[in-house]
Design goal:
With 200 residues, the chain is of the alpha/beta class. 33% of the residues lie in helices and 15% in strands. The protein is built from 7 helices and 6 strands; from the N terminus they run αβαβαβαβαβαβα.
Length: 200
């Protein structure tokens, strides 16, 4: 990695970034370690919680874990979710945020909030509809990153969630489900989005 400039070294100073992994994953999966390292080097506090029983996840346990790890938020708190981590963090925000502009932003990578035919075992996470109005109001920085050929979460589901939340949409061609086996041990677009968020 090239040497950081003074400006880079404190780019994310004062920011707290929470990365919520998905089903059958962990904090050491995919692009999470790379992003955590880069952001930490540039001044951020990064939290990548180990979500409980990721091989057989339960909504209540995941919600409890996130609330324990991040009991409160502010304008310097930024959330990133991947796959199941997206609906998990959105439900957390519904509970923790009661007024507008309470967080710095959220980024949804392969997000969904409807039942996936490929993942029927996760149906419990999507039974209750989200409060889209509230989730649009908690921050002006709302971004969805969607792959054109995601075979695990349908791109149509990700687009539907993005439209409901009125997020900015970043389309990436042929990126699969943004997994390490899809060669995603880094995800540069997410870093670019984070730079935009913290710059205002």
């Amino acid at each position: 990695m090239t040497q950081l400039t003074v400006r880079d070294s404190d780019r994310f100073s004062g920011k707290k970034v929470i990365i919520v992994h998905g089903y059958i994953a962990s904090p050491s999966s995919h692009w999470f370690p790379w992003l955590s390292k880069v952001l930490t080097e540039q001044g951020a506090e990064v939290i990548v919680p180990e979500m409980p029983d990721s091989l057989s996840p339960k909504p209540e346990a995941w919600a409890k874990k996130l609330t324990e790890v991040v009991p409160k938020t502010d304008g310097n708190t930024i959330f990133i979710g991947h796959s199941l981590g997206c609906v998990t963090l959105l439900r957390y925000l519904e509970v923790i945020c009661s007024t507008t502009d309470q967080i710095g932003g959220y980024i949804l990578v392969s997000g969904f909030d409807s039942m996936q035919c490929t993942l029927p075992e996760l149906a419990n996470f999507t039974f209750q509809p989200l409060n889209y109005v509230l989730l649009r109001e908690v921050t002006k920085h709302r971004i969805s990153i969607i792959s054109s050929n995601d075979e695990i979460v349908s791109p149509q589901s990700s687009y539907a969630l993005a439209n409901s939340l009125q997020t900015e949409i970043i389309n990436i061609e042929n990126a699969g489900h943004f997994l390490d086996r899809d060669s995603f041990t880094r995800l540069l677009p997410i870093y670019d989005v984070l730079k935009t968020i913290v710059s205002g």
